Amino acid sequence: MTSQVTPYDALLICSFGGPNVSDDVVPFLQNVTRGKNIPAERLEEVGQHYYGFGGRSPINEQNLALLAAIRGELASRDIDLPVIWGNRNWHPYTVDTLRDAAAFGARRILVLVTSAYASYSGSRQYREHLAAARTELGDDAPQIDILRPFFNDPGFVSANISAILESAEGLQGGLEGAHLLYVTHSIPDTMQDASAVTGPGYREQHEDVRAVIDDALFERTGVRVDSSLAYCSRSGDPRVPWLEPDVNDRIEELAAAGVTKLVIAPIGFVSDHMEVAFDLDVEALETASEHGIAAVRAGTAGTRSDFVSGIVDMVLERASRERGEEAAARTVGALGAFPDIAPPGSCRMRHNEVSGIPVLAGVED
Ligand SMILES: CC1=C(CCC(=O)O)c2cc3nc(cc4[nH]c(cc5[nH]c(cc1n2)c(C)c5CCC(=O)O)c(CCC(=O)O)c4C)C(CCC(=O)O)=C3C
Ligand SMILES: [Fe+2]
């Protein structure tokens, strides 16, 4: 029987993972940083962020909430599709979830990676991870397809717009006279360059979302805000260049230019996980307050209904394309939909280097 989700047997939410208790923190950080050049001092510092929150990242509960919301949306549309969850860096690990799913008879699984923008960290690294999981499962491995990067999905963007409007209610006079500072995760310049080889790069994807949201806010409120894009959570060797400006430096610059009202909009993050909870809610808001700026932090897409129904729309859209039907890919902004299958050579760690690590299609590209 063909249903709206044929050929898929399940939807896998594949996320980063995070520690649940203090004893998880060090092994989790070891998983994340294996093979990466992260100085011990940086790891020590990030470990402290987790311990400050009782050794527990908010990300796992947020993923469970997203699962529940997607299940609710599917049920409300009478769609029968199991939703399962696996992580790259902590339990439940993707390979374990896939093994279970296969044991229950799942042969073909669609994956939503909880990262909206395409770069090595948000795209290829997940594709390598899923390929490794399939290799580990051998003949029992289900076939896997991955949803395209969804930064310009109408539901994701609309959820961010609502979040910004809601947070601006916390400022006297709302958006009028405020600077809107969009924030995302910094990445090394080399990773940025590599993200721009087969399509618009990581920075350009964010700039596109910024333009769409700025216009939408003008339409809704009549206020044309001043806005800019800044980066948080840089890591690695301090001598290696990463995308700038850092959010705190940018706030100081804005203060020097006379800005007194600020909305911080973490469009680069899908939920309020550690980077948001610490780097923005603790550090960036403190920087703003030190400089006499009244600042609010907008929410993330999280489980907002626009985002959740957008996810289900993307699932249906992909399923119908896989059945050979025409299904337009809905997007906002100027860049258009990214391809369903990431092109060879896309989103390498460094643009001039082939790692040889297999990605999902099984080719070393
Ligand atoms: C672009 C991007 C996203 C957004 C896309 C996406 O959402 O996937 C993201 C998400 C996340 N990053 C996370 C945690 C960490 N990231 C690290 C390190 C790094 N991130 C990088 C980039 C990104 N990271 C990079 C280039 C590094 C350097 C090492 C490397 O090249 O990999 C480290 C090591 C310590 C440190 O140096 O910070 C940790 C602990 C968590 C979990 C948070 C929680 O527990 O709530 C989440 C969602
Ligand atoms: Fe990260």
Automatic annotation (TrEMBL):
**Metal-binding: present as a keyword of the record?**
yes
The pathway entry for this protein reads as: Porphyrin-containing compound metabolism; protoheme biosynthesis
Q: Its principal location?
A: cytoplasm
**Lineage start:** Bacteria, Bacillati, Actinomycetota, Actinomycetes, Micrococcales
Specify the domain of life of the species encoding this protein: Bacteria
Q: Which GO terms describe its biological process?
A: heme biosynthetic process
UniProt xrefs under SUPFAM superfamilies? Chelatase
Family membership noted in the UniProt record = Belongs to the ferrochelatase family.
Q: Which Pfam families does the record associate with it?
A: Ferrochelatase
The GO cellular component terms are: cytoplasm
Query: Which EC class is this protein assigned?
Result: lyase
Q: What protein does this entry describe?
A: Coproporphyrin III ferrochelatase
Function field: Involved in coproporphyrin-dependent heme b biosynthesis. Catalyzes the insertion of ferrous iron into coproporphyrin III to form Fe-coproporphyrin III.
Residues bound to Fe(2+) are 185, 275
**Species this protein is from:** Leucobacter edaphi
